[in-house]
């Protein structure tokens, strides 16, 4: 069984338990004040295995399923025997990295909490985009796809402006920092532990794009 499927299964099980138990939800959620006051640093990880509701859980795990399996295969191809270990490391470190800005910003805010795997999923999606920058990516139920690297740019820009606007329940900051972490992680580790020309391949793929065929439909 793939690492992606195992993570999805654990996340679904834990999330379902949390839906039925407020105590489980409270114990696992990302809560900076509790981390500071009670040294509950495990919350940097556990919050990624609970979700606000079924739709939140579905969209995160569906996106993770769509990109995670292929990304995991790329990791094995590029890093060999270390591929699955580095893939696990990417996922769990991105859970931590994407909420560090929130932790620093809300460390004394007793009313702030966050949950969900979207930051880690963003890291996986953007790692996939580095491998396959021209692969068409679109939105659910909308049959229009654009090259992954353009989708990534649009995603980051929109997330930035929505985050500045505020007023919603979506943690856009976690999306942005998760995506950035996924890119940086993969670039660093491919340079240190692989001869695969990741950045060169990305650049050459982008340069080869025919702008006349930027959109695809299915």
Automatic annotation (TrEMBL):
The Peptidase S54 rhomboid domain, residue ranges: 39-190
Main location: membrane
Listed GO CC annotations: membrane
Transmembrane regions: 6-23, 44-65, 85-103, 110-131, 137-162, 174-193
Key words of the record: Hydrolase, Membrane, Protease, Transmembrane, Transmembrane helix
Species per Swiss-Prot/TrEMBL record: Hanamia caeni
Record protein name field: Rhomboid family intramembrane serine protease
Presence of keyword Protease: yes
Pfam families associated with the record: Rhomboid
Gene Ontology process terms (BP): proteolysis
Record PANTHER family: PRESENILIN-ASSOCIATED RHOMBOID-LIKE PROTEIN, MITOCHONDRIAL, RHOMBOID PROTEASE
GO molecular function: serine-type endopeptidase activity
Keyword Transmembrane helix: yes
